[in-house]
Write a structure and sequence with these properties.
With about 90 residues, the protein is mostly helical. Helices cover about 50% and strands about 0% of the residues.
Amino acid sequence: MAQIVVRKLEDEVKEGLRRRAARHGRSLEAEVREILRDAAVAEPGEEDDIARIGLGTWLTRQFAGNGLREGEKIEEIRGDWGVRIPKFDE
């Protein structure tokens, strides 16, 4: 099997990978192998494949930019949606 060395990796990146590995119940090395394996088998355009990235990530990407903007209130866009959005504070 092949080996690679990644030099000049930021400490924050290594720590993030370590935490991710712990969440998945794997060693840091096993987690990095899994990430690289996934990246190596992905075909162009597969980044949006629901089965590969998960439904939550897919939905987030599909609806990015379609919600409230910074500082905007739901009352300001209520009529734009063509449906009655109930006020829960009544």
